Amino acid sequence: MLTARSIGYGGRVRGSSQQRLADLYAAQAPRSLRLAFLMTGDADAADDIVQEAFVRTYARLKERQPPDRLEAYLRRTIINLSHDRHRKLRSARGFSARSTDVQKEPDMDSRLVFRDLLQGLPHRQRAALVLRYYEDLSEHDAAEILRCSVPALKQLVQRGLKALRQDHQGGNHA
Question: 57 exposed, middle or buried (CB, 10 Å; 0-12, 13-18, 19+)?
Answer without folding.
Answer: buried
